[in-house]
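agent> Task received from the user: take the single chain below, predict its 3D structure, and emit structure tokens. No templates, no multimer pairing.
agent> Plan: (1) validate residues, (2) run structure prediction, (3) serialize to tokens, (4) report one or two observations.
agent> Step 1 OK, no nonstandard residues flagged.
tool_call: predict_structure(input=
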Amino acid sequence: MEKNQSKGNIKVLMARFSLDGHDRGLLSVMSSFRDAGIEVVYIYFSDSKELAKVAQEEDANIIGVTSSMGQHFFIASTLLDALDERGIIMPVIMGGVIPTRDVPSLLDLGIRKVFGPGSAPKDAIDFVMGLS
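)
tool_result: status=success, residues=132
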């Protein structure tokens, strides 16, 4: 956790690429996070550098990104690079329509967890709470 965040005071920056119109799962997870006492900030982004900047400005603990258009490798690699450029060490989780076969490669890139189709919001809550 970042220096200003205490256990039980978790802030997640949830993000959707601006051209990705699929947000039903993301909205469900955000609602479940809030019900569990997790603070949520939600943005659309068009550039991963913008997302890294907002994560730093918001003093977020975790970034959660949805990807349902097949751009998950691009988003993951550019976001992790942008965080690294800013010296930000922060877990990134992904969800959405991500093929199971792509999960090991995303984890190898540095994504902490992938929640694909059929994942329950409780699984994401448990994972995020476990990071604190």
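agent> Step 4: summary for the user.
Residues 72-85 form the longest helix (14 residues).
agent> Done.
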